[in-house]
Write a sequence for this structure.
């Protein structure tokens, strides 16, 4: 089992324990099966970013809570805390969630052909996407919008949305996520 995978599961289990939640209750809150949650906690299954978002949204927790924990230590040049999911999307936390400021920030890489669809986050969550390199498409408000290097888009993330790259090169993006609640 990889340390990254084990750490995600340990963080989820710790978060659940701190709140006195059973796997059954978390499954109902998040819309993720109890079996899948158990596999993630035991480090037996690699969750996609979309699955982690469903869990975080259902628990009204920031995504970075499961990727980097509560320490706030995110990026060390020798070993960045990167998560690659089955779609190919690579997410690297830049700033862990800060309850005083109500945001977290990620570097995202979308290789050619990558498609990552996300279910709605918690009510009031807003994403700010900045394309650094390449070209990507964002699915918001029922349609796909193309963004190139230097372009930005802010959108309500409490609706279905998605990221895809149909271009020839990897798209590199920063995503700042604002939460209206203190997690």
């Amino acid at each position: 089992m990889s340390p990254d995978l084990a750490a995600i599961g340990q963080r989820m289990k710790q978060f659940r324990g701190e709140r006195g939640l059973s796997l059954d209750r978390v499954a109902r809150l998040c819309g993720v099966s109890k079996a899948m949650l158990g596999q993630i906690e035991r480090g037996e299954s690699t969750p996609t970013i979309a699955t982690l978002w469903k869990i975080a949204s259902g628990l009204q927790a920031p995504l970075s809570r499961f990727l980097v924990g509560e320490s706030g230590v995110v990026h060390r040049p020798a070993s960045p805390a990167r998560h690659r999911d089955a779609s190919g999307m690579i997410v690297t936390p830049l700033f862990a969630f800060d309850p005083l400021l109500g945001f977290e920030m990620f570097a995202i890489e979308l290789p050619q052909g990558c498609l990552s669809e996300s279910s709605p986050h918690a009510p009031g969550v807003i994403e700010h996407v900045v394309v650094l390199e390449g070209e990507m498409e964002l699915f918001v408000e029922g349609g796909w919008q193309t963004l190139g290097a230097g372009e930005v888009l802010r959108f309500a993330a409490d609706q279905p949305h998605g990221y895809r790259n149909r271009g020839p090169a990897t798209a590199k993006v920063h995503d700042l996520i604002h939460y209206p609640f203190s997690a």
Observations:
- Confidence is low (pLDDT under 50) at residues 72-78.
- The longest strand covers residues 90-98.
- The two ends are 29 Å apart (CA to CA).
- The beta strands are 83-84, 90-98, 103-110, 115-118, 126-133, 135-140, 143-148, 152-156, 161-164, 171-178.
